[in-house]
Amino acid sequence: MIQREFSISSSRVKLILKRKVQMKKVCSRWVPPSLSEDQKQNRLNFALDFLNAYGEGHERRLKELVTGDEMWAYYQDPLTKRQSMQWVKKKDSRLAKFRRSRSAKKTMYIIFFNSAGVVSTSRLFPTKKQSTMTSEFYVETCLKKLVRTLKRRRGKMDFVG
C-alpha cells in the first residue's frame, strides 16, 4: 500500500519505518478470555464447599467425580500471529488479542471427564430449528449419554439427578 503510493520497494518502506519513524513490527499476544470477579468468587466458593464436604478421607469419592465443559468451535480460523502483525512505535508494547473470533458456522462440543480422562462427548450442530444449547438438548442428549456410559463402566447402579 505505502510502496504503491510512493512508488518505492517494500524493503525501502520497512527501512524507513524502522530507522526514520522508529517503528517495529510486532505480533499480537494471545490472552485468554477473562472471568469477572463475581464468576471467580463463585467458582472459589463452590470449590471450597465441595472440598469441605468430600475432601479429607474421601479420596475415592473425588476420583469418581465427573465434570463437564463445553465450547464453541468456529469453522473459520482467526488470523495467525504473523497475519495479525502490525507496525508500532518502538517504545510501545504488543497489542493483546483474544484467541477466539466468531464465524457464521460453529459446532458446540460438550465433554465430560474424570480423573482418568474423557468419559463422554456430545456435539451440537446449530440449525435454524435449534441454534443454542437448551436444557432439553442438554438433558436428553448429553446427560442421558453420560449416564448410559457411566452405567456401562460402573455396572448397573442407580444414578440420582
Brief summary of the model shown:
The chain has helices spanning 2-6, 10-20, 37-54, 59-64, 135-154, and strands at 23-26, 29-31, 67-74, 86-89, 96-98, 106-114, 117-124.
The average pLDDT score comes to 81
Helix content: 25-40%
Strand content: 15-25%
Strand order of the largest sheet: 3-6-7
Summarize the main sheet: 3 strands, antiparallel
Tell me the overall shape. elongated
Question: Which parts are unreliable, with pLDDT below 50 for 5 consecutive residues or more?
Answer: none
Helix/strand order, N-terminal first = HHEEHHEEEEEH
Tally of alpha and pi helices: 5
Topology:
Layout: H1 2-6, H2 10-20, E1 23-26, E2 29-31, H3 37-54, H4 59-64, E3 67-74, E4 86-89, E5 96-98, E6 106-114, E7 117-124, H5 135-154
Parallel strand pairs: 2-5
Antiparallel strand pairs: 1-4, 3-6, 6-7
